[in-house]
Each structure stands twice: as C-alpha cells, then as structure tokens.
Design brief:
The chain is α+β, with helices and mostly antiparallel strands. It is 37% helix and 24% strand. The chain has 11 helices and 15 strands. Strand 3 and strand 4 form a beta hairpin. The protein is globular.
C-alpha cells in the first residue's frame, strides 16, 4: 500500500503527546518535548514575546507521527546572533514587511542539531523533503516574508538546498575530547604559550577567594534559580540585548529534565557571584548562559571553559560547545567549526540577492576560520 502522509500544524507543543514527538526528536535535549514545553509553558516563547508556535507534524496512514519540525511565526530576529544580516531593512526597501517570518529553530539555543526530525526506521530523505515542502507551503499560506531553518545538520542543509533554499553558515567554537586522562594531561598537550597563559589565569584567580560548585537539575533550588536568572539578565543588559528567559523556565527544566541541567557556580564569602548554565546531552556539554553579579577577572574562563573540560574528561564526554563569538576561545582549545542554516524567500530576485550575499559571507567566514586555526593551540 502506498504510504501517504498528513501534515498538520500545532499552536502549542502541548497539542502532541511527548512520546510521539520524542520518537522523532531522539535524544537531543534541545528539540525534545520537555524542553519545548518548558519554553512555552513558562511564557518565554509565546505570541506575546514574538514567538507564535507553529510546529509541523507529519502522520502516516496509521496516524503515527513520523516527522516533525519545531517552527515559530516570529515578529522579530532577537536571539538569532545576526543570522538576518540586515535583511529586514533590505526586504522592506524592496516593498514588503519582513515580519512576520517562519523560523525553524530552538529559541535561545543556538546549537547545531537536527531541525527536520524523523522517527527512527522511517525514510529520512523522503520525509525531510516533505517537511521542507510543507514549511514553504505554510510560509505561502500565512503570507509570511520568508522561511529560515537555523543550526541544522549539514545533510539537512544539503537537502534543503536541492529544494531551492539558499544555504548559509556561521561559526561555532567546539572543544573535542581527544582521550586526555585529566585536566593536567589536557593542559600538558597545549603549546607553551597558551599553557603558560592558562596557568597564569588560574593561579591569579586562585588568589581571589573564589570557589566552585557544580549543581545538577536535582539540586537547583528556588534561590539558586533566582541567582542564575540574575546572572543571565545582567549579561544581556550589558550587551544591550533583550532577556527572554525567566525563572520559571529554569525551574521547569530542573523538574522535567534534571539530568540535562548543570550549573557551574562561583562562590565567594558564602554567596554565589557568577556562574554558567549548561545543557548536558548524552555526548556533550553546551554552554548556554553565563553571567555575574560581581566581576572577577578570569572567572568566566574558569566557569565556561576549564570547569567544563574537567567535567567532560571525568565523565567521558566527547565535546563542549561554547557557542559563537570569541576568538579568545581558540587559545583555550575551542576550535572553529561551521554551522549550517538555510533560507527561502518567495521572490526569486530577492532570493538570488540573498544567495550572493551569503556566498560572500561564507568566503569571509572560511578565511576567518583559517586564520584562527593558524593559532592552533595544541602540540601536534
């Protein structure tokens, strides 16, 4: 019997059973039902904050969910790390409003992973093609300016490009576990200059009276959640960015996904003054939020890099994703890696203009990554 698929959109992740969604999401903590539900039920993600959930789901003849995509009709481009590249102004000058647009993403989580989710054992390419066609159709039906799929896998981007989407890219800084025995062994594998730099930073930080604690989701109290929220908000305020995440989001994550939550907190004189909020997957760590109430030089490097490396080595994790930006990460062992996006506009002329711009941007980013890799910090 020929397999037919029915597409439907969801106004809320609550409109689908967790087991049905997670059968497609796999073990990625960012796209799992519990995380998307925490974002929505805490009102971090809602029409009021400029994110209207419009998740896409495909069901087969038997009614089984076989594919899905986390999607939002968005009224802004906040928390996208410049992915739009000024397109909103260009689009409006061309005669149309850029917002709303359709964004396939995990809000506030700029980390690579699958965005075109397919149930294990099903035809991945066929179902991903159908997802892309349906996403384009949704953009048309809702009269949206464009479709954007961000932080997707390379093979998903390649498929999307075959279907008319324009590929884009960015840079992420990743640490890899190459079989180091412990933190001292890792530092010993750095070249002399970065090794001396790290040693000096840690030695000077050790004179400040700052101590470190690691808390899992099971240990996240209301007071600690308040502290972490304050750190998060302070970082966004200093950077002139809008802070979307609230305390309820942290609390819901700790309740529903305790094994995926890790905090590295700096304490001085009995008070937490800085910290990094991590997501933890089966294979790695993702540095999600960093902030402080009292500035201590080098505390960020310890909290966001060295403590994480120590945890990864002790627990046998494969990688740490330190996110975008920050050339200083290279000397500490976090090397640049390509991340993949795809974009579609209904106007072929505007799409061609965007394609040319993205080609130039890719050339610039490739050159930047090559220059950064000239600072390769490890003993070869």
């Amino acid at each position: 019997m020929k397999q037919n698929y029915t597409a439907l959109t969801l106004d809320s992740i609550s409109d689908i059973e967790a087991e049905d969604w997670d059968a497609c999401a796999g073990d990625d903590p960012f796209v799992c039902h519990a995380h998307l539900h925490a974002l929505e039920s805490s009102d971090c993600v809602s029409p009021a904050t400029g994110f209207k959930p419009n998740h896409l789901v495909l069901r087969d003849n038997k009614g089984e969910v076989v594919a899905a995509a986390p999607a939002y009709v968005k009224e802004h481009s906040h928390a996208e790390l410049g992915a739009d590249m000024g397109w909103s102004l260009a689009y409006e000058r061309a005669g149309g409003p850029y917002y709303p647009k359709l964004q396939v993403e995990v809000p506030f989580c700029p980390f690579p992973g699958s965005r075109l989710l397919v149930r294990a054992g099903c035809s991945e390419e066929k179902l991903r093609e159908r997802l892309v066609r349906e996403l384009i159709a949704i953009s048309d039906q809702l009269n949206l300016s464009s479709l954007h799929i961000t932080y997707m896998r390379a093979e998903e981007q390649q498929l999307a490009a075959k279907m008319g989407l324009v590929p884009g890219q960015g840079t992420q800084f990743i640490w890899r576990n190459n079989g180091y025995q412990d933190l001292d062994d890792y530092f010993a594998n750095l070249k002399r200059k970065p090794r001396q730099m790290v040693s000096s930073e840690r030695r000077r930080l050790g004179t400040t009276g700052l101590t470190w604690e690691r808390l899992t989701g099971n240990e996240l109290s209301s007071d600690v959640a308040d502290r972490m929220l304050g750190f998060y908000q302070s970082t966004h305020q200093r950077n002139g960015e809008k802070a979307f995440v609230n305390k309820e989001y942290f609390v819901k994550l700790a309740e529903k996904m305790p094994e995926n939550v890790l905090l590295v907190l700096g304490k001085r004189e009995g008070e937490y003054i800085c910290g990094t909020f991590y997501f933890r997957s089966r294979r790695g760590l993702y540095a999600q939020h960093w902030g402080y109430s009292s500035y201590v030089k080098f505390a960020h490097y310890e909290s966001a890099y060295y403590q994480a490396i120590d945890i990864a080595l002790a627990d046998g994790l494969d990688f740490i994703d330190a996110g975008a930006k920050g050339q200083h990460k290279v000397a500490r062992g976090f090397l640049p890696q390509v991340v993949h996006h795809a974009h579609w506009f209904p106007d072929p002329k505007f799409l061609e203009l965007i394609a040319r711009g993205l080609e130039r941007k890719a050339e610039v980013l490739n050159d930047e990554r090559l220059k950064l890799l000239q600072r390769y910090p490890f003993v070869r």
